[in-house]
Each structure stands twice: as structure tokens, then as C-alpha cells.
Amino acid sequence: MIQTRALNAEAARADFPILGRRVNGKPLIYLDSAATSQKPAVVIDTMDDYYRRYNANPHRGVYAISEEATAAYESARQRVATFINAASPKEVIFTRNTTEAINLVRYSWGRANIRPGARILLTEMEHHSNLVPWQLLAQEVQATLSFLRIDDDGLLELEQLDRQLEGVQLLAITHQSNTLGTINPIKAVAEAAHRAGALVLVDGAQTVPHMPVDVQDLGVDFYAFSGHKMCGPTGIGVLWARRSLLESMPPFRGGGDMIKRVRLNEATWNDLPWKFEAGTPSVAEGIGLGAAVDYLTQFGMDRVRSHEQTLVDYALEKLQEVPGITLYGPRDSELHGGAISFTLANIHPHDLATLVDREGIAVRAGHHCTQPLMDRLGVAATTRASFYIYNRVDEIDQLVSGIQKAQKVFA
Amino acid sequence: MSDDLYREQILEHYKNPHHFGELPDADITQEGDNPLCGDVITFYLKLDDGRLGDVRFRGRGCAISQASASMLTDLIVGKPLQQLKTFPTKDLLDELGIQISPARMKCATLSVNTLRVALNGDVPEED
Asked: What residues of chain A lie within 8 A of the CB of B6, using their CB?
């Protein structure tokens, strides 16, 4: 049983060893959690403990430490399933990251099901990881891509959704834009997609770490996310899909662990979820993700979201007072997750990021793997500040003061 | 080498770039870009009896990329083309006079790489 704990950023900071370090002589102010989150000591220690005490290849070892490794790895899967309210841990496929989870669907479900001439509907705000795999599949099977547009507040234009869903076999959509912060109305969009006979894949890389996500309540078909953005390690991600769909899908990669019986010229497949997990899995990373899920669960994801919403409200208010700033994404924090993009007149985002780095502030500058969205916004790049449980409002004040210093340099 | 990436000379070149503009009668027009950063530079080169008779550039991007282009124009105008075809990246970095981190090296070298493509018509050398 995980003890609940109030979410207090100051107390949470003590859990993250890296937040004690200094950068360029200043305390590290980490505002790039949308790219990857920092890791609490409990996650690092859990992985360390696995390597020190029970490192073994799981699943077929009949000796003690292999059984311990199997139990820990499968227990992590169970906890991930509970975290996103999956009906069963069999629906939780461990992958390398969100990108690989989406590519699993492309290669397995997509190749078997997308017909020539069919349409795949995406949005203008997709991360390249939920765009390029579909470009490749469309070329391969002669399908076409179409896109939901965004308005000037960075919200999806959904007035014509039913018409745009005609002839669509798959809607692939992000739950939250990693660039704009926009939280999309997945449940409503998924209902419309299902009425039109399309399946729905959701890129949840920016939502599972930051707010409650209930895959059954959302009513989607595929849901992908990464461990490293939710206090877990790199190298572990998740594809969740409805069991009946996973049962019907051909394997993704062939190899050990994903088979039941192999003869020289044929093989039969293992049960879910292992059918989709060929080769020795990322054992330490899976166990580490389990520890990350426990870590977040003690706070409760509704409180994580509420903490970040407070930061977004504060940041939007403070940033809009900066002369020459353009803010992107919704102004309503109900629709805006913990990532804020902006540009400044006369200062390129890379110059700004370099200058605030001198103050110990880590922000991201560039296209954020959303080049079509940059085209839509008419910019080459933006600066993005993104938040997590360990960020405090005074760090936003520091960012604003860092921006003001940069403006003096370029004045 | 200065550790001040935004020392006065660089900001001066960024704010008031030398040879900025276009040459309507350019013999060679060459665009170069860093798609990952969005830095863009276009060189306009006027040849004159085996030498670079005149040069202009237009561009947009970060201060490092634009200041480096401006500095490069000062270094190359009037020089023999044969010499410019192999213009060493190091000469430009020395002129910039700052420590360029690996993440910003593409910004600093966009101009010289674009010049090399303009004069040789091939891909720039690896840094």
C-alpha cells in the first residue's frame, strides 16, 4: 500500500539529487521536464538494487534471482496498468519509448489493416514521433494523410470533425501538445472517431506524467507514453491497447520471449503481453518505471496536475508582462498543460536559451520535434519552459529575470 | 578565447551586419540553412578577374550565425577565389574569438559552409 503524501514542491525537491547541483555557479533551475523529467532517488536506488542484488534474465530462469527479477518486472507492469486504469496488465506492452510504441502500431496493426486509399487523420500539432511513422506507412500502403487544423489559440478546430472523419481508418492524435501545451478533448474526439468507424491512437507522452489518465474512460484504442518523462528511466515506454485488438494483431518483432513454440519453418506466438516483447527486455528500466509510478501515486495525479496548473497560471501572467514577447497556446490553464512556448522580438530562441543557461536555467529552444507546427505558427523556433512537481513559482520569477537580462544584452 | 559568447564585437556585427543586402548582378547566389535551428543565410557573390569582387548577404537566425556571416564577409571580400575555395573554418572561429559549444557549432559555421558550397558546388566538409 502506497502512503499518500501532500504535494509540496519544496519537499519534493529533496527527493531529486540532481536538483542539488549548481550550473554555471547558480542553483539548477530545471524547466525542461517536457523533454525529460528528473529522477527521484527512489527510482535510481531501485534500479541500482536490481543490478546489485538480483540481476538476471527474467521469464524462464528457474533459479531464485531470475524469479525475483521476473516478479519485480511483472509487478511493475501491474502497477503501470493500475496507474492508467487498464483492464488488465496483459494490455500493457513495454516498449523502448513512445516513439517505439507508435511504431509498433504502425508495423503491426497498420500494415495488416490500413487499406490502399484509406485515410489516416492527424493534427497539425503532432510531435514528429506521431507523424513520421504515419507518413512512412501511408507511402507503403498507398494511404493518405489528412490533418485537423489549429486556431490562433492553439486549440484544435473541431467544427468539421465528423466530415473530416469520413473514410478515416485511424485517428492518431496527441493528448497534449509538447510545444503549445494544449490539452486536447480526447474523449469527445474518440467518440466521434468511433462513430465514423475509425480507431484512435493517442500520444500520451505529455499527459501520463502530469495528470490522471484513465484509458478506459477516454475510450481510445491505443495509448502510448514514455517512462523517462514521468520520473522513470530512459529506455522504457508503454503501448496500451484494448486486449481484443492486441489479440488480433500480428507480432511486431520476432525473436526470443515472444514465441510459444518454434520449429524450423514456423512459430506460434506467446500470450499477451509477451507476444510483443521480443528479446531480453529492459528489466532494470521496467522495474525503475514501477518505482516511478509508486512515487507519483503517493501524491495523486490530480494533485500533480493542480500544482502544474498553478505554475502555468503564474507563468502566463508573468510572461505576458515581458515586452516583445509572443506566447503560444491557450491562455486558459484548464486547457493548458505544464509547457509554455514563447518567442521574443529580436532574440533568437537559441540565444535566449544560451543566455539564461548562464543563470543556471535550463529551457529548451528549437522546433521541439514539431516542424509543421512551427510552420503553422510562422516561426523557425520557440523557447519552451516546462514544469513538474519539483518546480516552484520563484523559479518562474528567475526565468523572467533571466529573460530581462538577455534583453539588456541585445538592447 | 573569450568565454563570453555575446561579447560586444559579436553583438555589434549582429545588430549592424557588414555587407548586408543583395547584389542584383551577383554571379553566384547561394542559400544555406540549418533546418534544426531555422538559421538561414544567402550569399551574393560578384566575381572579378579571379577574385571575389564584392559580397552581400541576407539571413535570419541566432546572433552567432548572423554575426559569423558578417565577419566572414570582411575576411573574404577582395580575396582570390582559389584561396576562398578552401577557406579554413578555423580562421572564422578565430575571428569570432569565443568558445563555441558543440551545440552551437552549426550556428557558427553555417556561413563558411555556405561559402564553400557556393564556390565548390559540393557539400561542406565535416566539422
From this structure: 351, 355, 409
pLDDT band at B38 (very low <50, low <70, confident <90, very high): confident
- CATH placement of domain B8-119: 3.90.1010.10
Distances in Å between the alpha carbon of A85 and those of A40, A91, A217, A218, A240?
24, 10, 9, 10, 10
* pLDDT (mean) for A365-374: 95
DSSP reduced 3-state for A174: strand
CB contact under 8 A, B61 and A348: yes
What is the rounded CA–CA span in Å between residue B110 and residue B41?
8
A-chain residues near B61 (CB < 8 A): 348, 380
Q: With a CB-CB cutoff of 8 Å, which residues 55-114 of chain B face chain A?
A: 60-64, 104, 107
Residue A193 and residue A171 in contact, taking contact as beta carbons nearer than 8 Å? yes
**Interface predicted TM-score of the whole assembly (ipTM), two decimals:** 0.86
Burial (Cβ within 10 Å: 0-12, 13-18, ≥19) of residue A252: buried
CB contact under 8 A, A381 and B6: no
* Helices (H), ranges, A264-392: 283-299, 301-319, 349-357, 371-377
Over residues B95-119, the pLDDT tens digits come to 999 888 888 899 999 999 999 999 9
On whether residue A36 sits in a domain, the answer given is no
| Catalytic-labelled residue, pool A23, A141, A369, A400 | A369
- Residue B124 confidence (pLDDT): 53
Catalytic residue status for A231: no
Residues A174, A126: contact at Cβ < 8 Å? yes
On whether any CB of chain B is under 8 Å from the CB of A212, the answer is no
Q: How many structural domains comprise chain A?
A: 2
| φ and ψ at residue A297, rounded to 5 degrees | -65, -30
Q: What pLDDT score was predicted for residue B3?
A: 58
The residues facing B52 across adjacent strands are B47
Quick check: A302 pLDDT over 90? yes
| pLDDT, mean over chain A | 97
Residues of B in Cβ contact (< 8 Å) with A344: none
User: What is the residue range of A178's domain?
Assistant: 45-297
Kindly state whether residues A236 and A328 are assigned to the same domain: no
